[in-house]
Design the sequence.
């Protein structure tokens, strides 16, 4: 994890800004998909100042909006920030212009996956997929199963073993999933899910 | 048994309350029973969708939350305890109001009406609206001496879409102060707990959780009380600070004050044992 302050120093210093698409094109696409007018942003940095996760991000949220306005598609879709954002809405609550930053981040994650760009935090994508696999199968989250499969996928066996064992000892991880009776209704919902989830 | 006439509510537990935070659910059901608030579990409920569905597919996220709305019988409010579930359920209602076509198609798909006038409330809101008199009459143990940080995490933050919805800023203090406890507000009460990053990137979450706990220690609190079950878990499992504090679910403290007796069952599930603190204050034997 980078400990540098993104506000002071962007991840990769660059001298030339190459504008990938006509200015406004990418921003317009994201505005349409997210339903939030990010062009209202006047770079006050309220979102960045409030974000609890800023230290783990490569671009502060306001800079993500700026990159969108500059049409820098790859930069935005490949950045860590969109995956680190957990959607806590601290920024949305603080934004003086009422920009729904979390909706922008949701949109960008989806675009990143749909366009098949390199995902900056593949383990987070893996985690979300495991949660969805559990939801598809049971209709509810079975945490032990999710964590087990996540471990298999990311091969991070030893990290966090102590926490996992403590949770098991405290009976916080149920061995058996609780499940929805009307499985066909749940399965049906997953038909819109864009990816082969098997 | 309850002294009060019963008021019926549909209750949406959600995955955390149903499993990892079973102690929160047990104490909530105890409290509700004592107060005569009849929480009727939504039949065959499913996960609200959570951040993962929201991240991967908006239609899926909407569909999962909306199915729960379709299961709620008319004539009684739908109550959630998990702030995130509340958020996704409310969000689905707002989306369907704006999108009558999807509303109709989901109703046809399930053959059930989705009532968009359904009241969706947080349990704290229920308490404040229906339960304040009942609280006073039913309190058995005074919480006097208990200094707590009301930890909301991100629970009261919301997107602009939901800004007109009622939230429960300050209600945790209102309720627990009425029961004798003393709120400590000089700590990080509204700092996100790290959510799913706790599972994927603990090294990001640990320093944040430590800051939250350290701030509570510095403010001389005895404990933190959380509005959200996931926050409770993250604050417990990710804290590496030298000095640690017990972290309660709101419903546990409430149920204690109301005289619940099965607290041993909840507290053995905590990673930081809260019993020494409660014994010191003579709240439990």
Sequence:
């Amino acid at each position: 994890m980078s400990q540098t302050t993104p506000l002071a120093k962007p991840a990769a210093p660059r001298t030339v800004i190459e504008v990938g698409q006509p200015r406004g094109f990418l921003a317009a696409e994201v505005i349409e998909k997210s339903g939030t007018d990010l062009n209202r942003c006047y770079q006050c940095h309220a979102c960045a100042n409030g974000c609890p996760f800023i230290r783990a991000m490569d671009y502060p949220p306001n800079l993500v909006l700026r990159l969108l306005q500059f049409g820098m598609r790859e930069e935005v879709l490949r950045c860590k920030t969109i995956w680190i954002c957990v959607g806590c809405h601290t920024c949305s609550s603080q934004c003086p212009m009422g920009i729904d930053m979390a909706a922008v981040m949701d949109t960008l994650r989806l675009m990143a996956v749909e366009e098949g760009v390199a995902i900056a935090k593949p383990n987070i994508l893996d985690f979300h997929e495991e949660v969805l696999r559990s939801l598809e199968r049971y209709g509810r989250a079975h945490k032990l199963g999710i964590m087990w499969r996540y471990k298999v996928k990311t091969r991070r066996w030893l990290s966090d073993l102590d926490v996992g064992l403590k949770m098991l000892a405290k009976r916080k991880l149920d061995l058996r999933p609780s499940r929805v009776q009307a499985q066909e209704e749940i399965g049906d919902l997953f038909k819109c899910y864009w990816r082969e989830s098997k | 048994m309850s002294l009060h006439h019963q008021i019926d509510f549909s209750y949406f537990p959600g995955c955390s309350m149903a499993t990892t935070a079973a102690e929160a659910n047990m104490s909530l059901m105890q409290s509700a029973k004592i107060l005569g608030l009849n929480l009727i579990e939504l039949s065959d409920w499913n996960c609200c969708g959570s951040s993962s569905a929201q991240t991967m597919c908006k239609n899926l996220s909407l569909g999962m939350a909306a199915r729960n709305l379709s299961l709620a019988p008319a004539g009684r409010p739908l109550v959630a305890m998990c702030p995130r579930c509340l958020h996704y359920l409310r969000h689905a209602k707002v989306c369907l109001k704006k999108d009558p076509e999807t509303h109709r198609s989901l109703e046809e798909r399930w053959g059930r009406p989705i009532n968009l006038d359904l009241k969706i409330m947080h349990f704290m809101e229920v308490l404040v609206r229906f339960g304040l008199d009942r609280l006073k009459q039913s309190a058995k143990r005074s919480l006097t001496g208990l200094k707590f940080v009301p930890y909301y995490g991100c629970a009261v933050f919301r997107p602009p879409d939901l800004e007109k919805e009622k939230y429960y800023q300050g209600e945790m203090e209102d309720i627990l102060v009425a029961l004798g406890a003393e709120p400590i507000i000089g700590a990080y009460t509204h700092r996100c707990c790290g959510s799913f990053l706790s599972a994927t990137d603990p090294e990001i979450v640990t320093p944040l959780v430590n800051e939250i706990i350290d701030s509570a220690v510095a403010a001389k609190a005895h404990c933190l009380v959380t509005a959200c079950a996931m926050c409770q878990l993250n604050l417990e499992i990710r804290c590496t600070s030298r000095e640690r504090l017990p972290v309660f679910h709101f419903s546990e403290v409430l149920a204690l004050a109301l005289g619940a007796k099965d607290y041993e069952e909840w507290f053995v599930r905590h990673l930081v044992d809260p019993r020494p603190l409660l014994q010191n204050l003579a709240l439990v034997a």
Summary: Residues 122-138 of chain A form the longest helix (17 residues). The mean pLDDT of chain A is 85.
